[in-house]
Amino acid sequence: MTTYIPALTLPQTFFATPAVAVLLPIVAGTGVGFGVSPKDTDKTYLALKQPPLRPPPWIFGPVWTVLYGLMGYAAHRAWYTGSASPNPMTRDLAKHGATLYTIQLGLNLIWMPLYFKWKRPIEASVDIVALTGVTAYLANVWGQVDEVAAWALAPYLGWLGFASYLCIGSGYLNNWDFSGKESSMPPGGNKDKDSVFVNEAPGN
Known about the structure:
It contains 8 helices and 2 strands. By secondary structure, the chain is mainly alpha-helical.
């Protein structure tokens, strides 16, 4: 069982205030996304070899906005329900979950720089697997506090599973090396100055 670690836990106000709880992950995730650069992110995503069922780049923004909002709602609901409970075990579980929540949020936010900016597919894959495990554990802990909070994390967990498949799959298909995989000229020789393309020649 995890424990409550104040040094690894967001301040109480980020859980107790509904608007703050919901907006925090949305704003943080959006900030990281723009920090990495959406244009460069789209180029890298389209340039790398990807496994089947990869979605178009435009879908990630709306999906993550919804998931971040649900994540924040789950955080507020579990904290509020746990704090108001007369059962000391329930209160402890809510606080333990707050530590797990903070850890998973950190793992979530570092993934995009690892994958797109620093082009480290191995580290990104380790990160997202750890993130999925921590979030699953968090859902279990907060599910003992408030079932609605746990269910609010269900879509997030489902998406993390799919994202893990995409992350690990793209790493494998690109030999765990994202450097030198982009070519300035697409097959056929028609160059688009705003695009980059996968160089699938032998040895790449």
